[in-house]
Prior knowledge:
220 residues, 5-stranded mixed beta sheet, 8 helices, 2 domains, Rossmann fold, elongated
Amino acid sequence: xxxxxxxxxxxxxxxxxxxxxxxxxxxxxxxxxxxxxxxxxxxxxxxxxxxxxxxxxxxxxxxxxxxxxxxxxxxxxxxxxxxxxxxxxxxxxxxxxxxxxxxxxxxxxxxxxxxxxxxxxxxxxxxxxxxxxxxxxxxxxxxxxxxxxxxxxxxxxxxxxxxxxxxxxxxxxxxxxxxxxxxxxxxxxxxxxxxxxxxxxxxxxxxxxxxxxxxxxxxx
Length: 220
């Protein structure tokens, strides 16, 4: 069963808004049941939708990033945010393949023509930024090789037992790109541009291994 986060918001702390947020929560709980979704978390906030720095938003994004849920339930997209804040959040959730369901659409969110156009422009700009970044990396690698750099000499674990070959690539570069909020698909694309034949799944698995080792080393 898919897991959902219910997000409810009103703009002020006024008592008159308590009825509104309670109604949002109850209606979304019924909606989740109708859609056969498991409710992972219910988040309620009393803050302006123009504010990006909302504790509930950070909590929601962290849960989605950690793949603890994959569906967002809101009354309508304005509850998520307003203006540029709404666009930024919609874009980030889209990058993580998070499905958004709203009561106002009785199902999956249908973006307005204006919002769809803005998100499409943002995606196009980001894609060209990635291409430019990859081109710079390729250029740097070509220069390094011309100057005598041999990537094969930097591979570790060459003395391990034979079998399925363990693909090697610079994990520190993966960590750096992850800290810059790139997805594992985007990181795999960057590594491929550097000449490393790796998939998104391999990058994700190796990143998790690295994080586990780092955590263990810190605890030790």
